Amino acid sequence: MSPTPGVHSLEGFSMIGPGMYLRDNHEQGQDSDTTSPNVILIFGWMGAQLGHLRNYTNTYAKLYPNASQIVVRCSPGVVWSTLSTIQRRLVPVIDALKALHCLPSSESSLERRRPRVLSHVFSNGGCLQMTCLGHMLQQRYGSASTQWSFTSALVLDSCPTTVDLNTLKLAFSVLFQNPIVRHVVLTFISTVYFIRFCLSLLVGKQMMLISHTHIDMWNPRVLPWMGVHTPRLYLFSRKDKSSPWKEIVHHAKTAKEGGMDVRCELFEESEHVAHMRVEPERYWSSIQDVWVLAISKEKDEKRLSQTLPAQHSPSRSFL
Q1: What angle do CA 208, 161, 239 make, to 5 degrees?
Q2: pLDDT at site 7
Q3: Residue pair 100/39 in contact by the 8 Å Cβ criterion
Q4: What pTM was estimated for this model as a whole?
């Protein structure tokens, strides 16, 4: 997708850190709204322009006007960054989640209401940042995070897949239109990848975090408030050259075999992270459906806690 010129901010958002934005609506009628997300957490794809991300934030504002939104952009440099570098960059996201009462700032801060969080991640770059945030939260809160009771859903757009040199070169070639610049960048990427690969063999440790992101995404608790109960929606296309659809189907099937609640939407004509642009009604309808499912699970849990023993209704899957 080509850059959108002239867009340097997100309307209604404040910048909370480099490449991170917050729309704070937590005082606007959330106590009376019992079906919408409290927070929508968006992890953009590598090189996504604000103009592109605005198409998603604007629609979310229409669908769930009371929801706060946190947007995390993904710069190309994140591919080579260390875990500590990415996590330092993500500190404002944790601060925002605390301010929105989605993380405990005191022992009783999560007792007032059950947080409802819809996470939307784009491509492998978005997955990398989300998994790093998950590791960070688990380090900070430890075993206490396993007791969190959130209503949540996860939307995966054009991800996750395995990442190798060819995948990286294809992703970066889209970002640079000038053929001379593109050649220089791709040569640099090949060199750095080779060096990192050799270092990985020498030290016995993976030197490129993004290479294992698809494995991390099989963790039901990729973010601490998620679990096998969290419905996952995979959105992908046959025409996507950057994220092969068969790899995403394999990831979804493996997740389902691990007990996770999985749904899939296979598009036919859209390119990488362009499914919403090609079929917007189907795209947003799928997301609304998976959120309705998350809310229904919350209601089932409440009924179960009030009238034991009870039986869970069977879950659907499109796989």
Answers
A1: 135
A2: 54
A3: yes
A4: 0.85
